[in-house]
């Protein structure tokens, strides 16, 4: 399939697919006229990329997941390198949650103080 068809099927744009290609995430073949050709496996790769980006992963973090899919696995998260990235990302998210909990508690305390001062 051509880049426009893959973009449509994956719910993205040709420009985004070219960006993924620049970063080594997708691998089109080329026609004699230079047009990019994608097989159905690339649709699965692009779907995985988009899901990971939506979850806050960076382009470099995504590479092990793509390699895992290209190795013939049904999912990109079953390989050791992918698991390491998942663990690191989970630790980051846990850290954010801890920070947000501290901020939330501080805001709640401030609001309680204001309510106490406002009631006669």
From TrEMBL:
Task: Using the record's annotation, list all stretches that form the HTH merR-type domain.
Answer: 1-68
| Keywords for this protein | DNA-binding, Transcription, Transcription regulation
Heme among the record's keywords? no
What's the protein here called? MerR family transcriptional regulator
Species assigned in the record: Actinoplanes sandaracinus
Organismal lineage: Bacteria, Bacillati, Actinomycetota, Actinomycetes, Micromonosporales
